[in-house]
């Protein structure tokens, strides 16, 4: 499998071309600037997890489809997106399964890291289970604190923010569920 950044660059370009979208049209659909989209396609920028979510939502595709094409990930944990500017790292555990409508990630956040996320596509639900550390989760202003072993399900088609409230690395599992038609594995 090619490196993840290269794969994301080629996936973005392929998604755009398949729809016949210009960078301007893509920027309007995703909420990501034309300049940033161009940099991602040329491999000149490493987008944050939040930016990748905007791209996936704008194209109405699963988040994991940006990391790997269906059937491309052979081993659990093979696809990993490095620490972004927010101090977040995503590791793909199970790619999007169109029959079951879900994908699963392990997310790691550096101490003090905060990641704000724009609403995902309509119907997207996230299931969070903290593995290590303490997670602060805010969904539309409703704040929760989750310790290791605790979990929460929420509608991710609303603004949400995650924060590592501890002094060490915080890890959680994130099962993302899409209602039928809310994403494809393109």
Automatic annotation (TrEMBL):
<keyword id="KW-0804">Transcription</keyword>
<dbReference type="GO" id="GO:0005829">
    <property type="term" value="C:cytosol"/>
</dbReference>
<dbReference type="InterPro" id="IPR014710">
    <property type="entry name" value="RmlC-like_jellyroll"/>
</dbReference>
<dbReference type="InterPro" id="IPR013096">
    <property type="entry name" value="Cupin_2"/>
</dbReference>
<dbReference type="Pfam" id="PF01381">
    <property type="entry name" value="HTH_3"/>
</dbReference>
<keyword id="KW-0238">DNA-binding</keyword>
<dbReference type="InterPro" id="IPR050807">
    <property type="entry name" value="TransReg_Diox_bact_type"/>
</dbReference>
<protein>
    <submittedName>
        <fullName>Transcriptional regulator, XRE family with cupin sensor</fullName>
    </submittedName>
</protein>
<dbReference type="InterPro" id="IPR001387">
    <property type="entry name" value="Cro/C1-type_HTH"/>
</dbReference>
<dbReference type="InterPro" id="IPR010982">
    <property type="entry name" value="Lambda_DNA-bd_dom_sf"/>
</dbReference>
<dbReference type="GO" id="GO:0003677">
    <property type="term" value="F:DNA binding"/>
</dbReference>
<keyword id="KW-0805">Transcription regulation</keyword>
<dbReference type="InterPro" id="IPR011051">
    <property type="entry name" value="RmlC_Cupin_sf"/>
</dbReference>
<dbReference type="Pfam" id="PF07883">
    <property type="entry name" value="Cupin_2"/>
</dbReference>
<dbReference type="GO" id="GO:0003700">
    <property type="term" value="F:DNA-binding transcription factor activity"/>
</dbReference>
<feature type="domain" description="HTH cro/C1-type">
    <location>
        <begin position="12"/>
        <end position="66"/>
    </location>
</feature>
């Amino acid at each position: 499998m090619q490196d993840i950044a290269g794969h994301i660059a080629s996936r973005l370009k392929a998604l755009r071309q398949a729809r016949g979208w210009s960078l301007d049209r893509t920027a309007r659909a995703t909420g990501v600037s034309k300049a940033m989209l161009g940099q991602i396609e040329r491999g000149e920028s490493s987008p944050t997890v939040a930016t990748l979510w905007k791209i996936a939502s704008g194209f109405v595709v699963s988040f994991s489809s940006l990391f790997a094409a269906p059937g491309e990930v052979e081993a659990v944990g093979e696809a990993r997106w490095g620490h972004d500017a927010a101090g977040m790292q995503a590791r793909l555990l199970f790619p999007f399964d169109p029959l079951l409508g879900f994908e699963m990630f392990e997310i790691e956040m550096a101490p003090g890291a905060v990641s704000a996320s724009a609403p995902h596509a309509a119907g997207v639900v996230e299931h969070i289970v903290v593995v290590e550390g303490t997670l602060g989760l805010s969904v539309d202003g409703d704040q929760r604190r989750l310790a290791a072993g605790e979990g929460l399900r929420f509608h991710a088609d609303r603004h949400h923010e995650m924060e590592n409230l501890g002094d060490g690395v915080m890890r959680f599992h994130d099962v993302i569920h899409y209602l039928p038609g809310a994403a494809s594995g393109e």
